[in-house]
Amino acid sequence: MDVRWEEAGWERLTGRTGRQRLPVWDCTVGLVVGDESVLLVDPGSCLREGARVRAEAERLTGRRVTHIAFTHGHFDHVLGGAAFSGAEVFGAVGLDALLATGRDELRESAVRHGLAEAEAAEAVDRLVLPQHPVSGEWTLELGGVQVLLANVGPGHSRHDLAVFVPGERETVFCGDLVEESGEPQAGDDAVPAQWPAALDRLLSLGGDDALYVPGHGAVVSAGFVRAQRATLAARFGVSEA
């Protein structure tokens, strides 16, 4: 099974988890494979990309994606959602309203970052909203594994959701609260004063030995997350007191 994942361009992390770094924006999509259900963490940046991810996920797991977690509402993490018909979608509380009222801004952001106008318009027109708002923590039973969805933000955005997967080594899908392939990006919707605290919550849930999967870049350790937390606190003038 590991060979099949590698040949398909996916990185197998543990017996239950894997991920792929998508081209262009280096955005991570994650998979959590239960005995009965499959969770996808972020569905890609457009319908074309989402459809490819869906086909690969089905081929690798032998079943369809039944659940999707949006780590936050930026275009490269949500616009592929409509490719996953019938999946239950989870997001931090308030993300559904933000996406419903911010379609124009989402389309403009996608085009500004290089997505073709036609693809951006199609994806926004068919945008999937989270049906399940996570205000604190939500446990998903996928069959043989219980996954914890945790609303750990705000920080990178006002609606940051992390995904914690137990196993021989816990896997933490961090979204863009953690970035490895570039400096953490703080746009207009970031909440810099609370970003270090969001990373503290990630670390308290994941622990020292977990695999931390950033929204962009290579898998990192707790030490990397702590160092990035210190960098962000200094960058935004957040007191350690």
Layout of helices and strands, plus pairs?
Elements: H1 2-7, E1 11-12, E2 17-21, E3 28-33, E4 38-41, H2 47-61, E5 67-69, H3 75-78, E6 88-92, H4 95-101, H5 103-112, H6 117-125, E7 132-134, E8 137-141, E9 146-151, E10 161-165, E11 171-179, H7 195-206, E12 211-216, H8 222-236
Parallel strand pairs: 4-5, 5-6, 6-7, 11-12
Antiparallel strand pairs: 1-2, 2-3, 3-4, 8-9, 9-10, 10-11
Commentary on this structure:
- There is one protein chain.
- The protein is an alpha/beta fold and 241 residues long.
- Helix content is 32%, strand content 24%.
- It contains 8 helices and 12 strands.
- The strands form 2 sheets. The chain has a 7-stranded mixed beta sheet with strand order 1-2-3-4-5-6-7. Strands 8-9-10-11-12 form a 5-stranded mixed beta sheet, covered by helices on one side.
- Helix 7 packs antiparallel against helix 8.
Give the integer mean of the pLDDT values: 96
Helical fraction equals 25-40%
**pLDDT < 50 stretches:** none
SSE order in H/E notation?
A: HEEEEHEHEHHHEEEEEHEH
**Strand neighbour order, sheet with most strands:** 1-2-3-4-5-6-7
Please state the structural category: alpha/beta
Query: DSSP helix count?
Result: 8
Based on CA atoms alone, the radius of gyration comes out at 17 Å
Shape: globular
Q: Strand count, sense and closure of the main sheet?
A: 7 strands, mixed
For this structure, the quaternary state is single chain
The count of DSSP E runs of length 2 or more, i.e. the number of strands, is: 12
% residues in beta strands: 15-25%
